[in-house]
Automatic annotation (TrEMBL):
Binding site for S-adenosyl-L-methionine: 10, 45, 66, 123
InterPro entries assigned to the protein according to its UniProt record, in alphabetical order: SAM-dependent_MTases_sf, Thiopur_S-MeTfrase_Se/Te_detox, Thiopurine_S-MeTrfase, TPMT
EC numbers for this chain: 2.1.1.67
Pfam family, one: TPMT
Keywords in alphabetical order: Cytoplasm, Methyltransferase, S-adenosyl-L-methionine, Transferase
Family: Belongs to the class I-like SAM-binding methyltransferase superfamily. TPMT family.
PANTHER family referenced in this protein's UniProt entry, alphabetically: THIOPURINE S-METHYLTRANSFERASE
Known catalytic reactions: S-adenosyl-L-methionine + a thiopurine = S-adenosyl-L-homocysteine + a thiopurine S-methylether
Organism in which the protein naturally occurs: Cycloclasticus zancles 78-ME
Protein name: Thiopurine S-methyltransferase
Biological process according to GO: methylation; response to metal ion
Subcellular location: Cytoplasm
Molecular function, one GO term: thiopurine S-methyltransferase activity
Domain of life according to the entry: Bacteria
Amino acid sequence: MDTNFWHERWAKSEIGFHLNDVNPYLIEHFAALKPKANAAVFVPLCGKSKDLIWLAEHTEKVIGIELSKKAVEDFFKENKLTPSITQGERFSTYRYENLTIFCGDLFELTANDVAAYQLVYDRASLIAFPADMRARYVEKLNELLPNKTQRLLVTVDYPQHEMSGPPFSVTPDEVQQHFSARYEIQCLASEDILEQSKRFKAKGVSRMLEHVFLLTEK
Ligand SMILES: C[S@@+](CC[C@H](N)C(=O)[O-])C[C@H]1O[C@@H](n2cnc3c(N)ncnc32)[C@H](O)[C@@H]1O
């Protein structure tokens, strides 16, 4: 899967992952991170998610990174916000009050870009990548983030042979494999979402769970 895959999804508005409202898991479980008053949250692969708005209202600073210029521009347009925009070598940077979105490739980020961020919100980001890229993504985030980070991670888990992703299936065992060396892992919720996932059911998926994990650095 290369970056063109995502540019095409956005160009054709094939963005079934996008929710028109804030993700209910974020509202319900964000407090489990026990965010400090000056919490700063990093949102990798943020799309045009409304979750950015909610996080900006509930934390001191939010930074997202998103490949698609269309996604970033739609985000500001649809939320009636006018950002300042700076063109850099690696990214175009969109800023509005306490929210910053880098438009560019996550793999181009350096630790300096996100060093001040202790919390990570990952909804539909790890599961956006096939297995080999997931390993690379986990490694990249480990390299970027300083010690003592916490993450809220939302995954989907279904028989992978029944559908080609994205979203890709990430089982609780795989979450352990990626993160147990560095994080205490707690599953906060597991929900059967098959009935509400009509487009996946239509593709022949027989079982689909969504899991919410709290990862706390050891
Ligand atoms: C499944 S969507 C999830 C978006 C968002 N987290 C949400 O909940 O709506 C994955 C997003 O990651 C973006 N993306 C994919 N690869 C990327 C990369 N290497 N760097 C930055 N963004 C990327 C895609 O354009 C897409 O918007």
